[in-house]
Amino acid sequence: GYREYVESLPLAGQFRAAAVVTVAAGLLAVQVLLALWDSVAERLDNRAVAAQVAEDMVARSGRDGPAHTLDLLSHDRLVTAAELRTDEGVVLDRYGPGGVSLPKGRNWPHPMLRFLGFERDYIEVPVYIAGSGPGTLGLEIDNLPPWKAILYRLLQVPFVLALGVGLAFYVASALSRQV
After folding, report:
1. Per-residue buried b or exposed e for 40-51, using 16+ beta carbons within 10 Å of the residue's own CB
2. Which of 82, 168, 73 is nearest to 124 (CA)?
3. What are phi and psi of 24, to 5 degrees?
4. 29, 39, 143, 176: which could join 117 in a potential S-S bond, CB 3.0 to 4.6 Å?
């Protein structure tokens, strides 16, 4: 197998192989960590934008009532569904296909699935609804932008690996001549 092949190489060849494999593994690990970092950053940005949208809608519902509160979402591509309901559970307005099916669950594993992007994220904001009293505004957030960030980063992997392995091979060859 691989071990016998590496042991059959001269010492300089073993050094080159070890250097190239180490650099490739390191670069791959860095790319995976950066992809995860990008997805978390994108998710946090999306939650901040959704919170701002919710804040605007809360102000509108307190001023105008439930009639046109969710109209702001027709131009927002980040929020895929929304629901405005009273504290008694009466749904005053819905936006999106089939209304809001969330929260799917607050217990394990749903928060982890939402964090990883396998379920759509969800935020709830307390709201005062003119003419109806206190209530809750629930927003479902699209989970595709974090996946796009991961895909973008992972599409860079072949180029980063090719550049890193080529550079590692060059440096290892230059160093092995001096050994």
Report:
1. eebbeebbeebe
2. 82
3. -65, -45
4. 143
Q: pLDDT per residue over 99-139, tens digit each?
A: 555 556 677 888 888 777 788 888 889 999 888 889 999 89
Token look-up 């969710």 returns: 70
Q: What's the pTM?
A: 0.76
Residue type, position 111, single letter? P
Q: Which amino acid makes up residue 96? A: G
Q: Look at the block and give the residue holding tokens 């509160």.
A: 69
Q: Which two tokens stand for residue 149?
A: 């960030």
> Measuring CA to CA, how many Å separate 163 from each of 35, 36, 51, 158?
18, 22, 41, 9
Mapping DSSP to helix (H, G, I), strand (E, B) and coil, where does residue 124 land? strand
Q: How far is CA 121 from CA 32, 43, 46, in A?
A: 22, 9, 9
* C-beta separation of 77 from 97 below 8 A: no
C-alpha span between 152 and 76 (Å, rounded): 23
Return the amino acid letter for 7. E
